[in-house]
Amino acid sequence: MASSSLYLLLLSLFTFSLSNAAAQSPPTAFHLPIRKDPRTRQYYTTITMSINITDVNVVIDLGGQITWFNCDQYNSPSYRPVPCGSNRCSTLEGSGCVGCNRPQRPGCTNNTCGTSVYNPYRNLLYAEGFGTDRMSTLSTNGLFVLKAYDTKSYAFSCAHAALLRNLARQTLGMIGLARTKSSLPQQLSLAFKLPNKFALCLPSSSDNGLGDIFIGGGPYVMPPVIRDLSKLLTTTPLLINPVSTAPAYTQGEPSDEYFIGVKSIRIDGKVVSFNNSLLSIDKNGNGGTKLSTIARYTLLHDSIYRAFAAAFVKVAAAKNIKRVAPVRPFGVCFSMTRANGSVPFVDLVLQSERVKWRFYEANSMLKVNNTVSCLAIQNGGLNPRTAVVIGGHQMENYLLEFDLVSSNLGFSSSLLQMNTSCSHYRNIRFSSP
């Protein structure tokens, strides 16, 4: 009873200080919830568009450049096309002019600023046009979600229904978080004069709560832990790949995606031996390590994967963890019983030996049935553009802050080690601005 009373007291004091700060100042950050679709393992959020208040579910693409969704049922009187040649078109880095010979409606307008709309799950690329509409987003103090604020001219693109292939059934498009002027974080940061930073907390499941997108910075509070986790982040530099990794780009453009500098990989503290030059980005933009919410699981260059898988199997065998026949789509699986030792942990060693991103069993393995778990890291092929792609499964239940002011990635230790996770519910203290 005493510890419970202390918890409630601390929570009340923390909530009081955060609520007072929010009441006395304009929005310092925004929040959107993240859900995980169990069938596709895609992460998606909900945006509220139009003066008609239309909720649209969109798949989250960390490396995506823009927001796009199908507008077949989107009848918004507040929608406006972005004219080609306009200042807004230039700011959004639009390309060319698009038109439409059907009756005018959202997604079908003339003299419209052109853009490329991309579905990475099917490698589909369409030429569409930019439009703007009102978007309503909830502010946050890091613990609660608070007031709704309107972005009166949020830029996005309507898209052909064919682009919805392989997206979660309940979604109508995608929302990009990349380093572009048209991404969600940069549009909100610019509109409300917030620091150019955002954070993700990807849930492993939506059964017991939702994950988080924070835009504008911390504090970050993950119930039931009442500490500000922004103070506990380890940082590593965000790197610029000098060659674009987008499906369509102009020669000389750098990549908009998020790369970090991995120096080596360790399993239970032992270095995995492979050609480490693959971990560097060469002059042609090949190699290196990026983060992706599109990849379900981490992908490794074939030579890295083979060395990593062999080393993992060897360490696991020493812990009495028996290898069994693989279960598709995984290449290495194990029989998991009570007699097993602890699953080996994996470290990505970053700018120094003291800076490591550590993955435990929940992120390195995936349970496929009652007795078998598989190594949730896959072979990315012989000639991938990027040598290491850190996928969604490995990012789950970590708080990740993408700080474009300091060009750093901040990452927490596993929230599961702190007796919390990225699946939780936040109380809403809603009022109109």
Task: Give an overview of the whole structure.
The protein has 433 residues and is α+β, with helices and mostly antiparallel strands. It has six helices and 28 strands. The protein has a 20-stranded mixed beta sheet that branches. Strands 16-15-21-22 form a four-stranded antiparallel beta sheet. The two termini are 40 Å apart. The N terminus is likely disordered.
Distance between termini? 40 Å
How many E-type strands? 28
Please work out how many helical segments DSSP would assign: 6
Strand content: 25-35%
Helix percent band = 10-25%
Descriptive labels:
disordered N terminus, four-stranded antiparallel β-sheet, 20-stranded mixed β-sheet, alpha+beta, 433 residues
Concise summary:
This protein is α+β, with helices and mostly antiparallel strands. It has six helices and 28 strands.
SSE inventory with pairings:
Layout: H1 2-23, E1 30-36, E2 43-49, E3 54-61, E4 67-70, E5 80-81, H2 87-91, E6 97-98, E7 112-119, E8 124-140, E9 145-159, E10 173-176, H3 184-191, E11 197-201, E12 211-215, E13 234-239, E14 259-260, E15 264-267, E16 270-271, E17 289-291, E18 298-300, H4 302-318, E19 322-324, E20 333-335, E21 346-349, E22 356-359, H5 361-364, E23 365-367, E24 372-375, E25 377-379, E26 388-390, H6 392-395, E27 399-403, E28 408-411
Parallel strand pairs: 3-10, 4-9, 17-26, 18-25
Antiparallel strand pairs: 1-2, 1-8, 1-12, 2-3, 2-8, 4-10, 5-8, 6-7, 7-8, 8-9, 11-12, 11-27, 13-14, 13-28, 14-17, 15-16, 15-21, 18-26, 19-20, 20-24, 21-22, 23-24, 27-28
